[in-house]
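Fold this complex.
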Amino acid sequence: MKDNIVEIRHISKTFPGAKVLDDINFEIKRGEVHALLGENGAGKSTLLNILHGIYDDYEGEIVLDGKSVHFKNPNDAIINGKISKVHQETNAIKDLTVGQNVTLGYEPVKGLFVDYKKLNKRVNEILDELKCGFRSETRVMDLTAGEMQMMAITKALFHNSIVISLDEPTASLTTRETETLFKVIEKLKSQGITVIYVSHRLEEVFRICDRATILRDGHYITTLDIADTTKEELIKNMVGREVSSVASRLKPSCVKDEVVLKVENFNSHGKFKDINFELHKGEILGFSGLVGSGRTEVMRAIFGADKKDSGTLYLHGKQINIKNSNDALKNGIGLLPEDRKTQGFMTLSTNIDNVAVSSLEKYMKGFFVDNGKKLDNCNHFIKELDVHPPRADYLTKNMSGGNQQKIIIARWLSTNADIIIFDEPTKGVDVAAKAEIYRLMEEMVAEGKSLIVVSSELPEVMGISDRIIVMCEGCQKAELKREEFEEKTILTYAIGGDKNE
Amino acid sequence: MSSLKEFINKKQRELVVVVAIVLLTIVFTALYPAYFSWNTFTQILQQATINGIIAIGMTFAIISGGIDLSVGSVFAIIIVAVGTFTAGGLNPIIAAVIGAALGGVIGSINGFLITKMNLQPFIATLGTMSVFRGVAYVITGGWPVLNIPDSFRDMFNHKIVQGVPNSVILMLILAVIMGVILNKTRFGNYLYSVGGNEEAAKLSGVNVDRTKIMGYVICGVCAAFAGMVMLASLGTGEPAAGQGYELDAIAAAAIGGTRMAGGKGTILGTVLGAILLSALKIGMILLNVDTFYQYIATGVIIVLAAYFEFIQDKVTKMMAKNK
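Structure:
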């Protein structure tokens, strides 16, 4: 048995107009948890896609378990290469059961028919091994995001995979689910399975990875032993310069006494109840809590995207009635949604249109929208927010996560919104862009805007907020001032406990 | 030079349809030299008018992410309603204005069902297709409306330009107006956004419901204009008219490059699509090809157009790669 399970040799890949991978060389050892790190756009996903047969035209050679391989498609990689990828957003057929999804295309048969007894028995064996709480017979639509991920791992094991890649596995998981995932990864490791781990969360890399390979702008930078390195060193290699990874405020707080938004007795059956809070001018108000605690739902109700059962909203002391998102826009309230891909931008539109959509009245010439004015506005913000690539005519969907987020920020800066709600502002955003987004937030409050930041990342919400409201199961659990911020306190409230417990 | 390249890039699909029309003309002229004449050209436009006008409206519904299957029935209601008004002596211009407005009102019913009642556009308009057809029959008791006055008919049939009836000019004017609405107004911008990603448009503060309803109103207005063209050209108002016209309109939009899932499409493309279908039909009539084969040819063109989109994508990607 060779020591190296995967050898990447001289891999290069060119997309129209850009070389995204340039002569990458490194090895992954058998049975290790190997982190693949880099900013968005560094080439991690492209490399994984080559490894897993999603792209089949590339230069260079992949050596898997001593043999040179060139997979034609993902299925080829899973079946013949024994190498599986667990996707960022797990694609599953929601109407089928777990077992059906896991065995899809490779169902055990008895004559002409699927042998469901055998199918469920085999899948349940794997689920038991992974200590999963759901069964092969469970419908996928009843699973949580974390359970879906377990299902994807189950599928990899069903196909006897020897290498499993996890791409941002914890992005939509709760803290508890993340812990479960880590236990499973350790279990895979103990069985000699190699895990390739892609994540922006460096804390996790230090928890579970053995070594880390860093890519930057399509180039191989280095491979480091996690035990002998520091977070700062990793970041320096990823970014190529020193950046603070931690969300922090560099400028003094700008909170004024003036209350700009007051939420009174917001209720929505099954989603949240008795929500009351005030937002001050120049404040960054953090909303913490576990995934599914109702934070997003409260924000959507304030913004008019969803209906609420009851509740009153006061803007600058005056009661307002927001029936739909258009009313919110007119009242100067903006929202940056949690899931950029499906909620953030128009897939078929360029940056010009994605920036302009909320502020078209600014670009009118008589009755008509003037495309030149739209373009000027977009270019202005591309420069202001340092968007890369600085191209107004690019389709937003082809930009990296951080730059997509900047485009959506530009959309709201183009309006006269002075209350902006950020829902998971840095989800899937790389370290350097994160820091830039925090700076932008600070600039906004300095200009007198007020922000609400919903975040599942504790360091983020603690670093950036003036005040934090913790939610648990649809209820407002606690309100913390800056001097009371402490991970343990927030977590205790978030899981429903009280401070004195 | 670069602006020409940009133009070609932007209007790729439309150019492809133009090329297809030119090729078709060459083939038909080779087979039947008299095909290449002013007369045939005006016939093609005339034949394209009704479908073209309906398809312009259909393009709005499809870009919004929906579809309107009821256009053929709206068309019939307008025919019998405006037929009854004019036969009853109403001023033809007033009748036409009322007809267009009525089309908009009927379209807004579709819009209401789709937005406020959250019905799937396909199902909602499948239902109203039947309801509106029934209404058309009820209005006349099943009989055609006769004695449409010449004053009304002349409005559409008179030829200001030699050989070209006003109805063709109406189609072109509507195409320009609707093209401007789609490209130059806020509503048009919103329509593309809503069709491109409804949730994202909503979370950008776009009034999604109002935008969609407007789309169906325009679709209804266009169907109404098409109905009046038909009424003027036949001189009788038949409540059974326009059956299956929704499919021709969808075909014209599809050939013109309108994305069936919404968010993409142009009026120019749709009108060219209608003209291509019409050129094919006229050519085959001149060549005495059996109607049965006309159906087959039309179907093949639609499928080819869809396939071409796929090839076009590949070619664009390859060209970008070689650059």
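The interface with chain A takes residues 180, 184-186, 188-190, 192-193, 196-197, 199-210, 259, 263-264, 317, 320-321, 323 of chain B (CB under 8 Å).
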